[in-house]
Amino acid sequence: xxxxxxxxxxxxxxxxxxxxxxxxxxxxxxxxxxxxxxxxxxxxxxxxxxxxxxxxxxxxxxxxxxxxxxxxxxxxxxxxxxxxxxxxxxxxxxxxxxxxxxxxxxxxxxxxxxxxxxxxxxxxxxxxxxxxxxxxxxxxxxxxxxxxxxxxxxxxxxxxxxxxxxxxxxxxxxxxxxxxxxxxxxxxxxxxxxxxxxxxxxxxxxxxxxxxxxxxxxxxxxxxxxxxxxxxxxxxxxxxxxxxxxxxxxxxxxxxxxxxxxxxxxxxxxxxxxxxxxxxxxxxxx
Length: 286
Description:
Blueprint: H1 15-25, E1 40-49, E2 52-62, E3 67-72, H2 78-85, E4 93-98, E5 101-103, H3 108-114, E6 116-119, H4 131-135, H5 146-149, H6 156-169, H7 187-201, E7 205-209, H8 217-232, E8 237-240, H9 244-250, E9 253-258, E10 261-266, H10 273-281
Parallel strand pairs: 3-8, 3-9, 6-7, 7-8
Antiparallel strand pairs: 1-2, 1-4, 4-5, 9-10
């Protein structure tokens, strides 16, 4: 057992672990700046809904400064896995480790407090509020002194200034005016607002659920650039997507789910899109 191995994980490895180890041995490179110590790690997660098995002993590793894509057919367990990692669901069995420490998320707020931010497909932005207000939605900053502590006056000027800084840090040039209501923005710009909010507060991990769904080619490319910018900033990203070209463009490693299990972990260098689809459908083993 290595120094970073969770307690109780020694002994016979599960089939899922063996598959993951085989995929790594078959050519999965070490992500840049990674000492092979995962920032986020799940071990043998199990989640059932009555007689329906959502997860059947799934393991996952996310390393610093990488984009890990999760793909799989409908019903493969992608959403259940993400919900367990982000506190929306509590696994029946298994362990989750963040920065080498065991964590037990009982609700999404627990994951957010620990530094895991999730951008869901529906974005969860408020159309009537401006860009800056959406970036600080639920985390509004108050003015200093009595105005903030007693009268709870929002520091609108300060939030707008920080919003501009966050957008600039991510290289988002399509949002010049942070006072514009989100309802006036395009789909890609709204996605940029949601990603910027996650980057501003997700100090450890950002999870993106189908970020390019329902977007045009140009806007999708802008979102993919955002994902790359997050990685360049050193923020590890979990990307859930059905779009194979997008996955192979930005992912460092690809976790493939099938029938509630991890079928394989591959890379764009070791496997083709055809290979990934074959593993996903069961036509080929990892």
